[in-house]
Specification:
Number of strands: 15
CATH class of the domain at 3-173 and 418-422 and 470-477: Alpha Beta
Shape: globular
Order of helices and strands: HHEHEHEHEHEHEHEHHHEEEEEEHHHEEH
Number of helices: 15
CATH architecture of the domain at 3-173 and 418-422 and 470-477: 3-Layer(aba) Sandwich
CATH superfamily of the domain at 3-173 and 418-422 and 470-477: NAD(P)-binding Rossmann-like Domain
């Protein structure tokens, strides 16, 4: 980073410290902060986007390869808290000469002036600090879904994206494929209208299925692998002693670290319905079914009902989410076979989907019923006889000009608009944040969307923000 940029970060830290010490929150005036804000670079059409990558193994590695494959990115920095782990080696071998870092803060300090954009492919809970720092430094951000683990984190990320005027993209990659363009075209043409209910289902096995739900404490501490920076892995989260069941995807199982099946798959199943039906935030979330509830990790099965109010001349909608291997939703007459779209990736644990019902959705309107899969899978009208009857009325669906990764990079160059920016993805993720709190407390939650408060459950309302960050990680909530 340049001396000017280093000074900016130090300046902001000093301002925050003075503000806290003097109890003068107004010291952080807009003019004061504006002077310290770098402007994001719009990359010229003839250049590649200089991309720094945080999280280089597992899903993070897949993101890097896809972004690089577009031909629109230079990989200029690699960052991971465990550079010696087996799952990081493929990316390190692919980019052997790229500078390496174990701490994203050090990466920005040393290379900030060489970075245009950042990919964030790390556990759910640590999306927030990396993304906030990147945006505050004027860097465009591609962050894997869900955006953040708590409602407040997502809220702050949306505000920061607007404040710093950076390009953002959440990594629900199907949002640049067929279903995105089809859903929009069908809504515009009045084919999808007057929707009153949606069923969303993800019934594949999850990592925590079969765990003993009688657990009364977190796992015991184990020896930290020599190559792992455990403090860096925890980032803003409350302290836990290292355990193998927290890392390498296992973090998704725990309320303290992950967002469960809803955060993992909801953005691949409900994204287009949420955006094009303008659902916003629900006013009620009801735990219709919770199997194996406990205070530490996600249930064995859940059925959650989200109630959305009327909006812009559209009727109220109930969205019912089903997860769990033996928690299949009812299907309407004429549903047909649940085919598996070859474009849908396998779950992160590699297990095959159950044959009964593959991940997807059923959309009920006053006149028509639609079924669809996950990611970019196209919708179809059911029953088949109705689909044939309406075939001549269906509008032409435009082809995608770019996949999700190229769309982000072209947006960094001012050539396209990102399709899943934080302004679109944020409210969707906040729906999931509320759903996870419903699972965690196994209680119906009433939500005031204007005040952004849970009105009937003080403890759940408190966890919209979760616990204060660990000492030394407070600055990311003030950027």
């Amino acid at each position: 980073m340049t001396n000017k940029e280093c000074s900016r970060r130090e300046f902001l830290k000093q301002v925050f410290a003075l503000s806290a010490a003097a109890a003068l929150p107004t010291i952080l005036t807009e003019n004061t902060l504006q002077a310290a804000r770098p402007k994001p670079r719009i990359v010229p059409a003839t250049e590649r986007v200089n991309l720094a990558c945080c999280g280089i193994g597992n899903r993070g590695g897949e993101i890097i390869r896809e972004l690089y494959k577009t031909g629109e990115a230079n990989i200029v920095a690699l960052c991971d808290v465990d550079m010696g782990a087996p799952h990081t080696q493929a990316i390190l071998k692919q980019f052997p000469k790229v500078p390496r870092f174990q701490d994203f803060r050090e990466m920005f300090d040393k290379m900030g002036n060489q970075i245009d954009a950042v990919s964030v492919g790390v556990p759910d809970f640590s999306h927030f600090p990396i993304t906030m720092l990147a945006m505050s430094l004027g860097k465009h951000v591609y962050v894997e879904k869900p955006m953040g683990r708590t409602f407040n984190e997502v809220e702050l990320m949306m505000r920061a994206a607007k404040r710093y005027k950076v390009v953002t993209q959440m990594g629900n990659q199907g949002h640049s494929e067929g279903n995105y363009f089809q859903f929009k075209a069908w809504v515009d043409a009045g084919i999808i209208k007057d929707v009153t209910a949606i069923t969303a289902h993800m019934n594949s096995p999850r990592r925590w299925h079969g765990w003993n739900t009688g657990i009364t404490h977190f796992p015991a501490g184990e020896a930290i692998p020599q190559t792992l920076d455990w403090n860096g892995w925890l980032t803003t989260a409350r302290f836990h002693e290292y355990n193998k069941d927290y890392v390498n995807g296992q973090w998704r199982c725990w309320y303290d670290f992950g967002m469960g099946a809803l955060g993992d798959w909801g953005a691949h199943i409900l994204d287009t319905a949420h955006q094009f039906l303008k659902l916003g935030l629900p006013y009620e979330i009801d735990p219709v079914r919770i199997d194996g509830h406990n205070d530490f990790f996600f249930p064995q099965a859940s059925t959650l009902k989200f109630r959305f109010a009327e909006r812009e001349h559209m009727p109220a909608v109930d969205v019912t989410w089903y997860e769990g291997q033996k928690n299949l939703p009812p299907v309407p007459a004429g549903y047909g076979v649940s085919e598996l779209d070859p474009n849908i990736p396998a779950p992160s644990n590699g297990q095959i989907y159950p044959a009964q019902l593959n991940p997807g959705k059923i959309i009920y309107s006053k006149e028509l019923t639609f079924k669809g899969g996950s990611h970019g899978s196209l919708l179809s009208i059911i029953p088949e006889e109705k689909a044939k009857e309406m075939a001549s009325q269906l509008p032409e669906v435009p082809a995608s000009s770019s996949n999700h990764y190229k769309n982000f990079l072209l947006a960094c160059k001012g050539q396209e608009e990102s399709r899943s920016p934080f302004a679109v993805a944020g409210p969707l993720c906040q729906v999931f944040n509320l759903g996870v709190l419903t699972q965690r407390f196994n209680a119906k939650l009433l939500f005031d969307a204007k005040k952004k408060e849970i009105t009937n459950h003080p403890q759940a309302n408190k966890l919209l923000k979760d616990m204060p960050p660990r000492e030394g990680w407070e600055e990311y909530y003030k950027l």
